[in-house]
Amino acid sequence: xxxxxxxxxxxxxxxxxxxxxxxxxxxxxxxxxxxxxxxxxxxxxxxxxxxxxxxxxxxxxxxxxxxxxxxxxxxxxxxxxxxxxxxxxxxxxxxxxxxxxxxxxxxxxxxxxxxxxxxxxxxxxxxxxxxxxxxxxxxxxxxxxxxxxxxxxxxxxxxxxxxxxxxxxxxxxxxxxxxxxxxxxxxxxxxxxxxxxxxxxxxxxxxxxxxxxxxxxxxxxxxxxxxxxx
Length: 230
Hints:
Elements: E1 11-14, E2 21-22, H1 24-37, H2 45-48, H3 55-64, H4 74-86, E3 93-94, H5 98-107, E4 111-115, H6 120-129, E5 138-140, H7 153-162, E6 169-173, H8 176-185, E7 189-192, E8 210-212, H9 215-229
Parallel strand pairs: 1-4, 1-6, 4-5, 6-7, 7-8
Antiparallel strand pairs: 2-3
């Protein structure tokens, strides 16, 4: 059942990598394991971290160097994902303050969910390992719908699963595709500046409703929005 058409936020949707959880240590471990297998030099963590939100193809490109217009080896990508699957929650943790934010969202009688481009065979066990699978109102992975972000389809499905309309959903992400998808879906958006923002990124130009420095600022933004609509 869809909730009432109140303008207030009723559902908070999160990107997974670089927004809800700090997955970069385990993805960096997987990439460096692959590089080691292939006899390549390992990469510093600080070089890998900003690329994590862009997925396995971007990580393979970072490690093995094909140009942006050249295809990435599917064998390397598959091996990277296999290595990552073996160490899915080795060091991955929620970002500082995120556990408290989820508790507060639930305490305010709102719900929350995840919309990620990560494939379901990785998303579902990771959410379970973090103890969040049963709490989330929806988990939409990169292969749940025909289209992935920046297409709005996965976000619109998440709204329906969570029982809210798009204007009642807030989407929080750390990549331009997240903000594009949220805006095209008709929902307010926030940039998680604590996520995997690269030096070349210009999040102030993405058109989000606000740039958020930490998870606690998300609930502050929601409360200000509710006050403005009261």
